[in-house]
Structures are given as C-alpha cells and as structure tokens.
Design goal:
Arc Repressor Mutant, subunit A; 72% helix; Homeodomain-like_sf; Tetracycline Repressor, domain 2; transcription regulation; 10 helices; 0% strand; mainly alpha
Amino acid sequence: MPRAGLTPAAIVDAALRVVDAGGPAALTLAAVAAECGVATPSLYKHVAGLPELRGLLTVRIYEELTTAVIDAVIGRSGDDALEAVMLAYHGYAIGHPHRYSLAPQRPDVTDPAAAAAASRILDVLFAVFKAYDLTDEQIVHATRVLRAAMHGFAVLHGAFQMVEDVRTTQRILIETMKSIRVAAKIAS
C-alpha cells in the first residue's frame, strides 16, 4: 500500500528540494526517497524511475517559469511586456539556478507533457511579439533571439566578474531587445 501523502506531485516537490540543495547532480532516486522519508522502492509505486521523474520535473519547472512570465506580463504590451518577460525570466533563472539548469532547453519531444509545458512559454513570447506588428516568420526569429539572449544572460550571470554593475548590462540587453521590431523586419 502506498504511503499516505506520497503522490507523484509530492515526489516532484521532494525532488526539487534535492535539486535546490545539491544541484542537478544530486538528483537520484535514493536522495528523493530519503527526502520523502521512504525506501527507494516506495517511489516506484508513483514514478517509473529517474527518467520519468526528470520528465515530471521538466514539466513543473516550465510551469513555474511560464507562470512567472505570465504574471509579469499581464496588463502590459509592446516594449513594457518585453521588458517584463526578460526580467521575470532572469529572476526565475537566478532565483532557482539549479532548477533552471535542470530544465532542458530542448525538451524531449517523445514526452508530450514536457513538450506541451515548454510550448506554453513559447506561446507567451509569441503573444508578446504580436504587438510588434511582425509576421509569423519574424516572430519566430524574434523569439529565437530573445530566448538566446535571456538564456545566455541567465547562464553567464555568475561569470560576470568585472566591477561594472550587471544591472547596467541587463538594461543594455533589454534596450537592445526592444529594437527587435526593426531587426526582424530587416532580416526578412
């Protein structure tokens, strides 16, 4: 009989605590079981193994990131929405660095739930760029550039060792991205 309170969602919560504390390398079924206070075989009543757990984590992380971005962009449009997206994305990535590094930038297309979760954030980015009067093709290019900029800035954030304020660099990046309307139209 499954332990009371142990569900796939509770296991994902425990796995996220393991990842938050020790990074992606700390994610093992034994560590998650210990966090849940059960023996490792007890997890198999709820998840088929580490690959399935990683898929569930991918979904949760993308859901969290998407929620943060949506919350930031509600009621905004154009440059204001784009800036809000970039700040929220960066805030999530820096606030949860181990979770962020665990989420694949290209989710497994054979996992429909992970692919759908990743697609939802793209839908938000596409919606933001609709206000820029871009064609669908230009929106795809603009979204790729935005994702590359946001991901690169988030991943490199800890590597910026010079004394100049990183927030100034972030402001320059945001202002550069606001010119995407012109750049996307030039490229097509």
